[in-house]
Specification:
Layout: E1 14-24, E2 29-34, E3 44-45, E4 50-58, E5 61-66, H1 72-77, E6 82-86, H2 100-103, E7 107-110, E8 115-124, E9 129-134, E10 140-144, E11 152-153, E12 158-160
Parallel strand pairs: 7-12
Antiparallel strand pairs: 1-2, 1-6, 2-5, 3-4, 4-5, 7-8, 8-9, 9-10, 11-12
Length: 166
C-alpha cells in the first residue's frame, strides 16, 4: 500500500466539512450538506465565527443550530456558507489514509522522478478516489488512488506509476 501522507507541512489550510444549504424552521436552525463523518466533533467553525450548539439528522439534510444565528433571516443569510476547520483540528490518520486537502496542489512526479504536473481534484465515483492531475500545458488526466497507480505520496509530492501516465 502507498505511504500515508504526513501531516500537512504546506500550512494549516481550512478544510470544508459542510455547507449551509438553507434555513430550517423559524428559530435559526440551518440545513447542511455534510462532507465529514462526524461534524459534532467540532464546536467552532470559520475561524471561530460560528459556534455549533447542536446537530441532528433531518428528513432533508442534517440540521444544525449555531449560537450566533438567532432567527430564520440570519439562517437564510448563511445559505452557501462553507463550514471550515483548520487542518490541525482533524483527527490523526491511520496507515494508508489521507485527507483530500493534503493531496490537493501536490506536485506529481513519475516513478523516474520526472515532473508531470499537480493534483487539481480528487473525486469519488463510487469505486474509490480518483486523482485528477493537470500537466503544465493545462491538459488533465485521471489516476485511481490505488497502490498500483500511486505507489507513494507524502507531504511534498505524489508519485504516479509509469503505466498510468497519459
Amino acid at each position: 500500500m502507498a505511504e500515508p501522507s504526513a501531516p500537512s507541512t504546506r500550512g494549516d489550510r481550512p478544510v470544508t466539512l459542510a455547507a449551509v444549504i438553507g434555513a430550517h424552521g423559524i428559530a435559526g436552525e440551518v440545513r447542511l450538506k455534510v462532507f465529514a463523518e462526524d461534524l459534532a466533533a467540532h464546536k467552532s467553525f470559520n475561524g471561530g465565527t460560528l459556534t455549533l450548539k447542536s446537530v441532528r439528522g433531518g428528513s432533508n439534510g442534517v440540521i444544525a443550530r449555531f449560537a450566533e444565528v438567532a432567527d430564520r433571516n440570519a439562517a437564510e443569510a448563511l445559505r452557501g456558507t462553507e463550514l471550515t476547520v483548520p487542518r490541525s483540528a482533524l483527527p490523526p490518520l491511520g496507515e494508508g489514509e489521507y485527507y483530500h486537502i493534503d493531496l490537493l496542489d501536490l506536485p506529481v512526479m513519475g516513478e523516474d522522478g520526472a515532473p508531470i504536473g499537480r493534483v487539481v481534484a480528487i473525486d469519488d465515483y463510487g469505486a474509490g478516489d480518483v486523482i485528477e492531475i493537470e500537466r503544465p500545458d493545462g491538459k488533465r488526466f485521471m489516476v485511481p488512488m490505488r497502490p498500483e497507480a500511486v505507489p507513494s505520496w507524502d507531504a511534498t509530492q505524489l508519485v504516479v506509476a509509469s503505466a498510468f501516465i497519459e
